[in-house]
Write a structure and sequence with these properties.
Length: 235
């Protein structure tokens, strides 16, 4: 069963989300607060594919809950819900480890489409066929193991979310090749994704914080002005 953890303090909105997700074939578990959401996630041993988190909640807000859930699972799909249109809210959620965001008010079709899209990516990762141990790409100090879905830098592990891994895999299979934001968006989020391209930029920023010695002056994941990004092997 496709399981979604719905964390929303406003009862009417939570019921709206639950009804529409149930109609779309998802099993939902509700939580009215961030603290309840975290408790349920731990009690159920992380047995969820997707978490739908409201940002503005009393007590533990969505940002904090997102960060805590991401600590406990790199593969959980996380979507942030916000009534605000400020760019900083969207960016902050993604930097905390969220995979996507939806701005309120939203239609049932948009909600289900975003959840469906993320669910497909999560399932693609969990059901990927086993690879041989030698199926590994090494670029300089970095080694990407496609079977274990892990990234090492000088032998030290770097923890990646499922979205981050897919981005890195795309770069490692196309080294020194400029990839546009649209290329990355279609490869990782799918060509049916109707969100904004800046989700790519925020994930690149998050990856740089994990892999670069100096994120503000990247040597590996570099910007190709007017185009997008590339993985440079010249560093």
């Amino acid at each position: 069963m496709k399981r979604v953890l719905v964390v929303e303090d406003e009862t009417a909105i939570r019921e709206f989300e639950v009804i529409n997700l149930n109609r779309a074939g998802y099993e939902t578990v509700e939580a009215p607060t961030g603290e309840d959401g975290l408790r349920i996630f731990e009690e159920e041993q992380g047995n969820f594919e997707i978490a739908l988190l409201d940002i503005s909640m009393p007590g533990m807000d969505g940002f904090t809950l997102c960060k805590e859930l991401r600590k406990r699972s790199a593969t959980l799909g996380i979507i942030m819900l916000t009534a605000k249109t400020q760019e900083m809210d969207k960016i902050s959620g993604l930097m905390m480890g969220a995979d996507d965001y939806v701005t309120k008010p939203f239609s049932p079709s948009e909600l289900v489409a975003r959840v469906d899209s993320l669910y497909r990516r999560v399932e693609m990762q969990s059901q990927s066929p086993s690879r041989k141990t030698e199926d590994e790409i090494t670029l300089g100090d970095f080694s990407l193991n496609l079977r274990r879905r892990s990234l090492l830098k000088k032998g030290q592990g770097i923890e990646l979310t499922q979205v981050e891994f897919q981005i890195i895999e795309y770069f490692f299979t196309h080294p020194d090749t400029a990839l546009s934001r649209t290329d990355i968006l279609n490869r990782v989020w799918g060509d049916a994704y109707f969100g904004e391209e800046k989700i790519v930029d925020v994930n690149i920023r998050r990856l740089r914080m994990k892999i670069e010695d100096q994120p503000s002056a990247p040597k590996h994941l570099v910007t190709v002005w007017g185009m997008g990004y590339k993985w440079s092997t010249e560093a």
